[in-house]
Amino acid sequence: MPSARQLTRRDMLKLGAFTGAALMLPVGRKALAKDERSAVDFTPYEARLKLPEVLRPVRSDATTDFYEITMREAEAEIIPGYSTPVWGYNGLYPGPTILAREERRVSVTHTNNLPVSTSVHHHGAYVDGDSDGHPLDLIPPGGRKEYKFGNQQCARTQ
Ligand SMILES: [Cu+2]
What we know:
Low-confidence stretches: 1-37
Mean pLDDT: 80
CATH superfamily of the largest domain: Cupredoxins -  blue copper proteins
Shape: globular
CATH topology of the largest domain: Immunoglobulin-like
Structural class: mainly beta
Bound molecules: copper (II) ion
Strand content: 15-25%
CATH architecture of the largest domain: Sandwich
Largest sheet: 5 strands, mixed
Helix content: under 10%
Distance between the termini: 36 Å
Number of domains: 2
Order of helices and strands: HEEEEE
């Protein structure tokens, strides 16, 4: 079984094209023809849904739960049996879940251990501009940034 690093860009593009078309295939049908050019062979819709792990706060006080997340390179098993390099929150794909309660504040401090500057956008969060993570609000490699959430919103997935 090849590791993800053995897959070529072309292989990954083939796989991406397949996953888009896979919606029209009957469940259980083989994903890719097994020939010398196919690096991966799997049956779609067979893997169980992996729920992102729930992150625990590093500390809490009367009003706020504090979390720490490190962006780093890791390997993830996106396709069962195959390892894929990812840049993940705590090295996870998808990243961890933070459970928040309405009106209870959350602070998340991100550390960037990736080789490039990143922005952590919080889609759908009612936050100050400094905690929105807009495209020019970059965390350089080795940098840290705290994001603050008041959670003055009704329940939702963000
Ligand atoms: Cu957005």
